[in-house]
Amino acid sequence: MPQQLEVIQKLSVHRGKVWSANWHPSGKMFASCGEDKTIRIWVQDKDDWIMQAVLSDGHSRTIRDVAFSTCGNFLASASFDATVSIWDKKGAAFECNSTLEGHENEVKSVAWSVSGNFLATCSRDKSVWVWEITQNCEEFDCAAVLNLHKQDVKKVIWHPHQDILASASYDNTIKIYKEDPSDNDWICTATLESHNSTVWSIAFDKTGTRLASCSDDCTIKIWQQYEVGNEEGIITPDNEPVWKCVCTLSGYHDRSVYDISWCKQTGLIATACGDDHIRIFRESETSTKNEPIFEMETKILAHKQDVNSVKWCPSTPGLLLSTSDDGDIKLWKFNNA
Amino acid sequence: MELENINPNVFKKSDERIITEKEWDESCIDPIDAREVFDLIRSINDPEHPLTLEELHVLEENHITVDNDKNEIRVLFTPTIPHCSMATLIGLSIRVKLLRSLPSRYKISVAITPGTHTSENAINKQLADKERISASLENSTLLEVVNQCIASRSNR
Amino acid sequence: MAGFSGALKLTNLDDFITPSQECIKPVDIKKSKTGSKITIQDDGTYLEETKLGSQKLQKVEITLADCLACSGCITSAEGVLITQQSQEEVLRILNENNQAKQNNENDKIKKIVVTVSQQSLLSIAKRYELDSVETAAKHLAGYFKKLGVDYVLDTKIADDLALIEARDEFIKRFQDQKTFKLPMLASSCPGWVCYAEKTHGNFILPYISTTRSPQQIMGVLVKELLAQKLNLKADKIYHVTVMPCYDKKLEASREDFYNEALQSRDVDCVITSIEIEQMLMTEGKDLKEFEMSNFDWPWNQIKTPENFIWAHELSGSGGYADFIFKHAVKVLFNQDVSELEYKNLRNPDFKEVTLEKDGQVLLKFAIANGFRNIQNLVQKLKRSKSGYHYVEVMACPSGCLNGGAQIRPQNNQQQKELTRELEEMYRSLPKSLPYNDDVKNIYDEFFGGNDSDKSQKLLHTNYHAVEKMNTALNIKW
């Protein structure tokens, strides 16, 4: 019987830790980054993934995260050198056309809003910045500096359909933000507290009404959004939706969980763990909105060291990308997608 | 910078390990034990005193646990005074020395001996955060101090 | 404590260790005796146990000035402020002084002077539901007088002087752009100045106007001019200001505002609007219960102004952009403008106004409020793309009326709604003409004219880039 999760290809070109990799919205390309201060662009050539470009002159320290814009024409990279670089995709080549400065120290994560109007970044300086994008990514104006976390902010992500932002922090909380139309400033509408240690990563499901989080406390949590006037009768103070933790997956992970990916097509959840394993979870048939049940489908020793990131492909169901401290990028096929 | 603990207690160093014939045998599978881990880190220098962490009893062999089945190594260290502001730096030095010396399969944790520091939880959390550790080692000034701490005495 | 403005919070902030541990200021520690052991008590104090018994160890004291001179955390300054500049400190000084007065200990008696900012008066008037700011001001003056304050002043005279000085400085800079860089950036917001010094240092400091803020001009007037009038030495006056923001406490603590010769600080203690509310709450009284009293106007013995509370042009932050723009249009281009039309940029807290002739921009001013717009401004300056001649920069969104230490909204009112109401109240106040007889008088009789050496020295200040400290042992990671 074939393994449920099979390696398709292993790419060993980065030197040192590979911190992150992220898909192009087409699913036909991805970018990876790491300790070696380079970004590598990968494309599919028949059955193989090959390296198309190396971007090595953008940052002076570790590159922690990379993200493609929704339109697919731009790539943003976040670095420990406190800057964010914006790269224009010009055919097969990439050109760095702007550098965003403002964070005091290491930038940990970068994300483009689905609308294409905003970019979010976060840093060890405890702040989350929202940048407003003007005219085809020519200018990035600071739309908000959100100093609401008490510690290092590890991750920022955008809602799949709206300009709603979420951030995860070393202060054990997750925060949700939206724009206040009265003065275009950004406000925090919810703080999600339940984890006992650093929240390393978060992921929305395809509807944006659910959020999954993974933490140094070795658990995964599923959060459900309850709108104002919800039928469950859950109180919504300040006329903003509230988020409730409706499910905690504990006992599965042996060490810190560094990344989580919620597939928009299959609904499968993949996790990257400090115990070198990748785990896949599926929502059970008896699961309900208010009491969801997730079951572990498979668990595989994926890398020789910590797994740092996992990302489901946006176009091919079951195709998964992982990166690790061992210097490798791996592409996986989940056979039961 | 003034010393925080001017006159720390100084303890006797433990004896050198006797290397047996079997240990020289390359063919023999030889899992790492607590004593070996201790030998790797006992000579780390205190950032403030011209003394090793062993001499200050910051490190003790019986505070090291090795689980070879799970590839886990856990080191507890005891700051000389409960508000020692050097504790994170000492912890970082221990962690860096072990990361550089041990095979990469080992999961290393470095933490403060329970009840011996006022900011124990905060320091342990920082020392367990691999991203913060990685970033700190790209700070050349900090790296220089860490390297000085973990350089063996003869090299100084 | 609500804390400093966002700009300061971001600056070199620190991680999780408490201020006492974070502080990297080297201090002298007495050598402990051999063989002692230190234990921590439940209350967080340290006990040193020696053969002779145990003894409580003293905590090392760090002053606010130490914090300002250090590139480390600003957050621990907050803890220091609580002890050095607080309502408790003001009440303690007042009590001591009242005691000294009772016991006729003449050498101990000081004149206590309180200066109240307009922004605080508006906030207090709103909180105690007094429609007339003038009435609120009089009740507040009555409260201070009852506490034993000798003089209660408003900032009008200093606001006027700050505008005149900033205006003249702008003209000077505009006419000599070989020596001076434009835009000139406003200097009255201490949060902005502190952020600039700590984060952008020598790049940004040459742009910042050297004109002192109204608080510090008031400091000079009280400790030098008023002292002269009262025939007192400066250290016999204790000067308290009431301000809309915590950052003003940092400003008063700057070394530049300590007069070595007089052995005295221009402003001894800053308390904020919200602390006035707390003081009244502790007394268990409403402001209206205190008898009304007039503000003092020591600047002109013959004629006091018909109002105490005045507005200055459009912005509740002092009206610098409007006032300087109108003056510059007149002086530099010989034109008159009555109403300025601002154009909002990407958000209402960043707006600009221009003077054009034949499609050419002659003057371009902006108002940039809040930390996000400080960022946008700094980035524009770095790319030399601003084109501005003057920018009124304030660290708080909506400027000083929405200062970080203004009294919080009551009854679930939104902060923004409250700010709007304060702005409306501000606009209904009578407008001050900064170049009036009293100001002229002070220039002539005290400063020896406009642009005299004395006015340059006492109405202007310097900025200092804070060097990043690279003591490896204390790097935060």
UniProtKB/TrEMBL annotation, chain A:
<keyword id="KW-0853">WD repeat</keyword>
<feature type="repeat" description="WD">
    <location>
        <begin position="192"/>
        <end position="224"/>
    </location>
</feature>
<dbReference type="InterPro" id="IPR036322">
    <property type="entry name" value="WD40_repeat_dom_sf"/>
</dbReference>
<dbReference type="InterPro" id="IPR019775">
    <property type="entry name" value="WD40_repeat_CS"/>
</dbReference>
<feature type="repeat" description="WD">
    <location>
        <begin position="56"/>
        <end position="88"/>
    </location>
</feature>
<dbReference type="Pfam" id="PF00400">
    <property type="entry name" value="WD40"/>
</dbReference>
<feature type="repeat" description="WD">
    <location>
        <begin position="146"/>
        <end position="178"/>
    </location>
</feature>
<keyword id="KW-0677">Repeat</keyword>
<dbReference type="InterPro" id="IPR028608">
    <property type="entry name" value="CIAO1/Cia1"/>
</dbReference>
<comment type="similarity">
    <text>Belongs to the WD repeat CIA1 family.</text>
</comment>
<comment type="function">
    <text>Essential component of the cytosolic iron-sulfur (Fe/S) protein assembly machinery. Required for the maturation of extramitochondrial Fe/S proteins.</text>
</comment>
<protein>
    <recommendedName>
        <fullName>Probable cytosolic iron-sulfur protein assembly protein Ciao1</fullName>
    </recommendedName>
</protein>
<dbReference type="GO" id="GO:0097361">
    <property type="term" value="C:cytosolic [4Fe-4S] assembly targeting complex"/>
</dbReference>
<feature type="repeat" description="WD">
    <location>
        <begin position="100"/>
        <end position="133"/>
    </location>
</feature>
<dbReference type="InterPro" id="IPR015943">
    <property type="entry name" value="WD40/YVTN_repeat-like_dom_sf"/>
</dbReference>
TrEMBL record, chain B:
<dbReference type="InterPro" id="IPR002744">
    <property type="entry name" value="MIP18-like"/>
</dbReference>
<dbReference type="GO" id="GO:0007059">
    <property type="term" value="P:chromosome segregation"/>
</dbReference>
<dbReference type="Pfam" id="PF01883">
    <property type="entry name" value="FeS_assembly_P"/>
</dbReference>
<dbReference type="InterPro" id="IPR039796">
    <property type="entry name" value="MIP18"/>
</dbReference>
<dbReference type="GO" id="GO:0097361">
    <property type="term" value="C:cytosolic [4Fe-4S] assembly targeting complex"/>
</dbReference>
<dbReference type="GO" id="GO:0051604">
    <property type="term" value="P:protein maturation"/>
</dbReference>
<keyword id="KW-0159">Chromosome partition</keyword>
<dbReference type="InterPro" id="IPR034904">
    <property type="entry name" value="FSCA_dom_sf"/>
</dbReference>
<protein>
    <recommendedName>
        <fullName>MIP18 family-like domain-containing protein</fullName>
    </recommendedName>
</protein>
<feature type="domain" description="MIP18 family-like">
    <location>
        <begin position="36"/>
        <end position="109"/>
    </location>
</feature>
<comment type="similarity">
    <text>Belongs to the MIP18 family.</text>
</comment>
Automatic annotation (TrEMBL), chain C:
<dbReference type="InterPro" id="IPR004108">
    <property type="entry name" value="Fe_hydrogenase_lsu_C"/>
</dbReference>
<keyword id="KW-0479">Metal-binding</keyword>
<dbReference type="InterPro" id="IPR009016">
    <property type="entry name" value="Fe_hydrogenase"/>
</dbReference>
<keyword id="KW-0004">4Fe-4S</keyword>
<dbReference type="GO" id="GO:0051539">
    <property type="term" value="F:4 iron, 4 sulfur cluster binding"/>
</dbReference>
<dbReference type="InterPro" id="IPR050340">
    <property type="entry name" value="Cytosolic_Fe-S_CAF"/>
</dbReference>
<keyword id="KW-0408">Iron</keyword>
<protein>
    <recommendedName>
        <fullName>Iron hydrogenase small subunit domain-containing protein</fullName>
    </recommendedName>
</protein>
<comment type="similarity">
    <text>Belongs to the NARF family.</text>
</comment>
<dbReference type="Pfam" id="PF02256">
    <property type="entry name" value="Fe_hyd_SSU"/>
</dbReference>
<dbReference type="Pfam" id="PF02906">
    <property type="entry name" value="Fe_hyd_lg_C"/>
</dbReference>
<keyword id="KW-0411">Iron-sulfur</keyword>
<feature type="domain" description="Iron hydrogenase small subunit">
    <location>
        <begin position="412"/>
        <end position="467"/>
    </location>
</feature>
<comment type="function">
    <text>Component of the cytosolic iron-sulfur (Fe/S) protein assembly machinery. Required for maturation of extramitochondrial Fe/S proteins.</text>
</comment>
<dbReference type="InterPro" id="IPR003149">
    <property type="entry name" value="Fe_hydrogenase_ssu"/>
</dbReference>
